[in-house]
Amino acid sequence: MARSVNFDLSQPDVEIGLESPADEDVVHDSFSRLIEEQSENNRLSAIELQDLQQDLDEEGRDSLAGLSGPAYRGWRLGSDETEEDDNERQTDRLLQDKLSSATLRILSSMPSRTIGRSRGAIISQYYNKTMQLRRRRQSRPAIKDFSRSARPSIRGYGVEVDTTDSAESKKERLVNNLQILSVGDRERMLRAMPLNLSEKKELRSLTLKKTKTHSSSKLTCCSRLKFYIIIALRHSWYSLLSFLHSLQLWQTRLKKISGRFGSGVLSYFLFLKYLLFFNVFLLLVTGAFLVLPQALYPPKLHAMRRSFTGLELLTGAGYFSDTLMYYGYYSNDTLQRNRENCIEGNISSSASPQCDSNYPSYNMPLAYFFTIGMAFFITCIILVYSMSKSFGQSFRIDKSHAMLAMKAFCSWDFKVIKKNPVKLMSENICTQLKELLAEVNHRKFKNTLKQKLHKLLVHGLAWTICIAATTGCLVGIYYFSDYMHEQERLHDVSKGRLLKEASLLALPVLVSFINLVLPGLFNLVADMENYNSPSIRTYVALSRNLMLKVSVLGILCYHWLSRVPAESDCPSSKDQDPTCECWESFVGQELYRFLIIDFIFTLLDTLFGELLWRLFSDKVLRRKRRPGFDIAKNVLHLIYGQTLAWLGVLFTPLLPAVQILKLLLLFYIKTSSVMMNCQAPRRPYRVSQMTTIFITLLCFPSFLGASVCVTYTMWSIKPSGSCGPFRGNESMFKAGKNWMDKLEKENPHLSLLARAHTYLVENPFFLFVGAGIFLIVIYFQSQVVDGQRKIITLLQEQIENEGEDKKFLISKLQSIHEKKRTPARRLTSQDSG
To answer: How far apart are CA 104 and CA 101, in angstroms?
Structure first.
């Protein structure tokens, strides 16, 4: 048969791969025409339709269920429940009952049922699309540039031609059209074709082969050289990107952990990696603007410097007290190049201002103040950005069925060909599929009133035990810290120096012991509660461990910022009394001790809690049951350590270096222990929002608390008068104020800068405005994510309603066919009677 094809340019075009709902009628109409063109068996003339209707009226062998026109439940809101149940029953029977041959024939001609069935129809359709796209994006070339098969057809100009071409000729025309398109349009067109991968690969290879032969015959020598250079540069760029991707930190270890233990355990190590980059940033800032300038111009030290004994690695005192490690070492002078040479050159004191103006200077108190302030400000920006980005990624609606289909069909990377990466990827995909299947099969049990009351009592008792244990430990820490502080003030001469320094470890040991033991008690209480979902148990454990860590840090901050500065009575001349230590250095040493002792107790927990338990289970109990990895306890240990590092930046500028070393060692020790001693969760579960919760806890309780303490120290507490860059000032903040006043007196033209400092830095209103802006950004980001979730939910409901619409229309069609068939059966029975 022959038919004309419309090539009217006024007809609206359909974008490749971006069809909108408004173009749905055009797409469906094109499918109908293509199916009509290619499937002659589905084309019926008017006479054939009449014969088919007579055959359908006479057939009596169809065992059909009488569907009496079910009403779609979404069309009439407010209908009673009986009618809705009846409609559901009728539409569900469509999946079980046998439909009539007429209904099946109509269903087989639907566009959604014919995609991918007729390969020739698809090739013809995309041949027409390539012609339309070529006319829109390119000017018409000369006829002589075309091959015979690719020359414009006379179809569409009122002349009917025979369209019963073979599939090979249609494929050749499609390939000719594809080779004329640009590379981007060609890739999008091939990607949008509903063909299998082998056929797409064949079309791409034919297109590239013809394009290469066609272009190589026309390219000049210079153009060919330029083409080869571009290809070489592109390959080099891709190789460089692949090399940089392979340099990612701990990539292989993280893949192994993800494949064996799932996303929950992996989130802990990703969070550790995230904290490592934070501390690297802090170390770079403090090292460049504080440590390095002071190392180049060291201050004069007293002659009675303490010797190194080795105990300083644990206590942080002794030899380390007179180093760049602590606040007390830094001078309050203006560091200046060749200042000493200028003074030694017999320059009088009256000429010293001229000497100061000849060489660049570095104001150490001002640098100390602004370096700490800018480090915290940039950290706040990074945290807010990371949290908002993580909110957008993790709080999307990921239906488990949809994610399961994506993982099953789209998760394999075919570029991976080596044996070990293939094994890692297969383990990773297998674990993710287990997690998704566990989420799909998870059922919410409906409890009776008695069961609800029993669970409520159990949960209340568990929380009472946890709160009581935490309160008791806090009271013990409070009184023990007071006792140790009083012992420190007495200066007992009978104790040796080493014994006195060793006694400083008592408070860190007590706090670390409590942080190690109480999470075990929380786990025992959680076993008593018997949670059905492992993820809910993890979140509850996180909240209880967070309550413990925040309370302990609150007691310690009160001890460091209230007791120690208030009772510091060092004389104003440190050179006369070398045994005197300023309270800022003492607080820095305390934070160093807490960080080191916490790391030691973490190693002990890994040794006794995981390694020895695994050996005892294997050798003595003869069981393969191994301990699981406690995500909540280990994550809160990381947040606790990072809070100590943020608190200590002001008093110990090199404390981020200690934290970096601790995190590096902790990663390798924990990964080895997890792989050797721990077992995967018995019930796999997916924790899509775990990383977001970790970053949120790091931002609000941890960083916000550390920022408040540091800001309070710099604004309100009087610095030591014998050490540090802020000696002699009422507060650390006054150093910036004094410098601005001095600058305004020396140069009146900079009065605008002084006023800006007064309004922006001294006035706390702008600090609250900045904090409010950050909170508003987080709020709007959460609202945007919530709106996207609602839109996705509405679209998914719309898809479900479309399916119900199809069921409704099929049932209506079936009922009409039944009504037409019933009189015909009666007439046949009367004639036979």
So the answer is: 5
Q: Which of 106, 32, 98 is nearest to 64 (CA)?
A: 98
Residues 6 or more apart whose CB falls under 8 angstroms from that of 732 comprise 368, 369, 713, 714, 715, 719, 726
Characterize 748-764 residue by residue with b for buried, 16 or more Cβ atoms within 10 angstroms of its Cβ, and e for exposed. Answer: eeeeeebeebeeebeee
Q: To the nearest 10°, the Cα dihedral for 146, 150, 156, 162?
A: 140
- Cβ neighbours for 94, distance < 8 A, ≥ 6 positions apart: 67, 807, 810, 811, 814
Burial 549-572 (b: 16+ CB within 10 A, else e): bbbbbebbbebbbebbbeebebee
Evaluate if residue 680 carries a pLDDT over 60: yes
Q: Is the pLDDT of residue 52 over 70?
A: no
Q: How far apart are CA 269 and CA 670, in angstroms?
A: 9
pLDDT of residue 12: 35
- Provide the H-helix boundaries in 504-630: 506-529, 534-558, 564-566, 583-606, 612-619
* DSSP summary character for residue 2: B
Measure the CA–CA gap between 129 and 174, rounded to whole angstroms: 10
Distance CA 393, CA 256 (A): 23
- State how far the alpha carbon of 746 is from the alpha carbons of 279, 349, 353, 354, 741, in Å: 39, 19, 12, 14, 9
Phi, psi of 2 (to 5 degrees): -120, 145
Question: Cα separation of 189 and 69, whole Å?
Answer: 43
CB 630 within 8 A of CB 519: yes
- CA 683 – CA 438 distance, rounded (Å): 8
Across residues 45-59, what is the average pLDDT? 44
> What are the backbone angles phi and psi of residue 3, rounded to the nearest 5°?
-150, 155
Residue 579, SS3 per DSSP: coil
SS3 of 226, please?
A: helix
